[in-house]
Amino acid sequence: MKSIYKKYFLIVLTGTSSYIFLSCDKTINPTLESAAPVLVVEAWLTNKPEKQIVQLTMTQPYFDATTPPGVSSATVLVTDDIGGSFSFTDDGTNTGTYQWVPSVGSVFGAVGRKYQLSVTVGSETFQAMSMMNRTTSVDSITFSSKQDLRYPTGSYVGQFWGTDPKGAGDTYWIKAYKNGVLLDKPSDINLAYDAGFSAGGDFDNAPFIPPIRMGINPNDTDPNNSNKILPPYVLGDSVYVEINSITLEAFNHLQQVITQTQRTGGFGALFAKPLANVSTNVFNVNTKGSPVVGFFNVSAVKGRGQKLK
User: Fold this and answer.
1) How far is Cα of residue 93 from the mean position of the Cα atoms in its chain?
2) Cα separation of 59 and 75, whole Å?
């Protein structure tokens, strides 16, 4: 079992002053209770002209760093509210990957349609619901030179430009691909409620705000020097930006993912939200059956690419 490090501390309050006493780091090896594996359903489907994937795996112990075991021999079906159905078949890799491949010229789903996911594993059936909401376009992508104390010479930062359509309540997941590779770290999750961060921002029918526009920049450090930030983009790099529509449930789910995965250590960890499972919209049709986690969402997608020359 891997070791973790815990820093002991004592806070003594005297009047308006506080004193913090810290001991040395101490390695501890906690014994965690085992838990029965739980089914994980990950189904983030889009209307892009490519195969769609539903991933079925099982949870594993916290300190187990191996790839989660896939679930085979399941039945996976998505149906819509006008009688259409999409059957997902096991790809045969024993990874729990189930796919639906569109015919030439076709795509999965349509804006405004409601969808139901049904997953049968053994004698149990799990379901989830989602709607494909509208999205908006990426009007353009621009780059600007960024050479200061933080970034090395030759660095550029990018931003996309787009406008949320009229009508409050649109939620989006903006994804960026650098040189064809998705930026997929938790810190790369870039969400928008209308053109801002949340419902209270009142950014309906407005251009996306700068922090969201600039959320397409990777924030990587040198693997040999964690204090050295690598250039987000350099001449010759390309970026592709997608605006994926998501449901409000999915927006809240991803916000929780950000909270649970982006954790700093040290004293600040004392005031962080406790570790907890994120929300799920997948349920067992048998209320007394096995638990399940994961999420189902269907997205409309619009995107644009740009090369830095």
Assistant:
1) 24
2) 19
